[in-house]
Amino acid sequence: MLVLAFDTSTSRGGLALMQGGRLLAEYTLESPASYLNRLLPGIDRLLQDAGRSIQEVKLIVVSRGPGNFTGLRLGLSAAKGLALVLGCPVIAVNTLDVLAANFPFASLPVCTVIDAKKHEVYAGIYCQGGGGLNLAGDYLLLSPAALAERITEPTLITGPGLERYGVLWQELLGNLAILPPPELRYIRAAVLARLGLQQYDAGLIPNLEKLTPFYLRPADAELKRPASAAMP
Q: Which CATH code for domain 2-94+187-217?
């Protein structure tokens, strides 16, 4: 099965093509401002370089969020549009889960963080259990300081949220904050593809019409909408 995966949820996106568990090609998209213009041409280039055609794609995997509101809407819209043309399913994976999956064999707890703006972060804390990393509790939206209060043992903190708050967490947590090298702090589309394929194999295939971004916080446009506009 040829799997196409792409992520547009954070400051550094990516594309990957996988078949039979083997990575055929993977690209990075550096700027969210360029996602609109580079996503579809990037998919074309990815397929060309791998010697495949879009008609061969049998599964599309995309990041569901949380993350950049515009990027999430763009990614899901592109995934749905391609799926309707190709007649294939779409699997949407939580962005925080994908970040944690960069460290499948971590012996320490893993805390994934994404800058949520407004002096807050999206976060998830994962621990080993049942043969892999599992989310401990709920996905979180909270201040960086409040997140630090939840970390009481040495923890691997990863994700693009380190760009803004990494120094702060090191100051607040000292030796409890273990930070990976920069190249491991971002979503890899290949990891996204692997997680999506696992969900597909488990039969966890969502209804395409009901597939929506996972924001954790309402978009600003929703908050500014007049009450009358929200009525059916």
A: 3.30.420.40
The residue-averaged pLDDT of 173-198 equals: 96
Architecture of domain 103-184: 2-Layer Sandwich (3.30)
> How many CA atoms lie less than 13 Å away from 6 in the CB half-sphere?
31
Q: Do domains 2-94+187-217 and 103-184 have the same CATH topology?
A: yes
- Spell out the long-range contacts of 124-129 with Cβ–Cβ below 8 A and sequence spacing 24 or more: 124/94, 124/96, 124/97, 124/99, 124/100, 125/150, 125/151, 125/155, 126/100
pLDDT at 120 over 70: yes
Instruction: Give the pLDDT score at 30.
Output: 76
Question: Residue 66 is which amino acid?
Answer: P
Residue spans per domain, the chain: 2-94+187-217, 103-184
Is the per-residue pLDDT at 32 higher than 80?
no
Question: Which amino acid does the sequence have at 12?
Answer: R
Q: How many CA atoms lie within 13 A of 174 on its CB side?
A: 3
Predicted structure pTM score = 0.91
Q: Are 55 and 85 in contact (CB under 8 A)?
A: no
Mean pLDDT along residues 49-74? 96
Alpha-carbon 29 to chain mean position: 14
Helices (H), 69-207: 69-86, 95-100, 144-150, 162-173, 189-201
CB-CB contact of 34 with 42 (8 Å): no
